[in-house]
Amino acid sequence: MTVSRAERRAATRRALLAEGRRQFAADGYHHVVLAEVARAAGVTKGAAYHHFDSKAGLFRAVVSEVQQELGERVATAAEGHVDLWEQFRAGCRAFLSAGTDPAVRQILLLDAPTVLGWDEWRAMDEAASARHLADALTALASAGIIADQPVEPLTRLLSGAMNEAALWIAQGGNAEAAEQALDRLMTGLRPTT
């Protein structure tokens, strides 16, 4: 069977992403050398530069991939429930528990904000997960499950709190205590009767 040029390019890109992700998660961005990623992936340094232009380009692609997977993990956890409130809680908990994943911890929480810069990291986070949080909050407010309020500032507050809690968990904080605190915080969103 003949492998097409496009299939070889796609395979090379996948190999570089997988190896880059492995090394960035294990060693941190600043200790990774693009030539070593290429060698470990079984491709030339030129192929790595062709696909990603630089180590930062590879890192950006890995961050995007990890964010996408995290978003899928959160969505899957939420979809396991019918009740909107339980969907919201499950998705938020799945996000928090991701802080124990080495790739999420090192790549997304520790390195991405400093390597990419705060503005780019926030824009990527917004595209990957914050918009889902805004959608969930909008649905909850529309259903009367949480108090009617402006969703954008609430999204930013919760996103910031959860990112900070996930980072705290990643650095050895108690995941169960963070989940309990998040539950108390979220319960405060519900209308008082």
UniProtKB/TrEMBL annotation:
InterPro entries on file: Homeodomain-like_sf, HTH-type_TetR-like_transc_reg, HTH_TetR, Rv0078-like_C
Record carries keyword DNA-binding: yes
SUPFAM superfamilies linked to this entry: Homeodomain-like
Highest taxon, organism lineage: Bacteria
Domain HTH tetR-type: from-to ranges: 10-70
Ribonucleoprotein as UniProt keyword: no
Protein keywords: DNA-binding, Transcription, Transcription regulation
DNA-binding stretch(es), residue numbering of this chain: 33-52
PANTHER family given in the database record: HTH-TYPE TRANSCRIPTIONAL REGULATOR BETI, HTH-TYPE TRANSCRIPTIONAL REGULATOR RUTR
Protein's name according to its UniProt entry: TetR/AcrR family transcriptional regulator
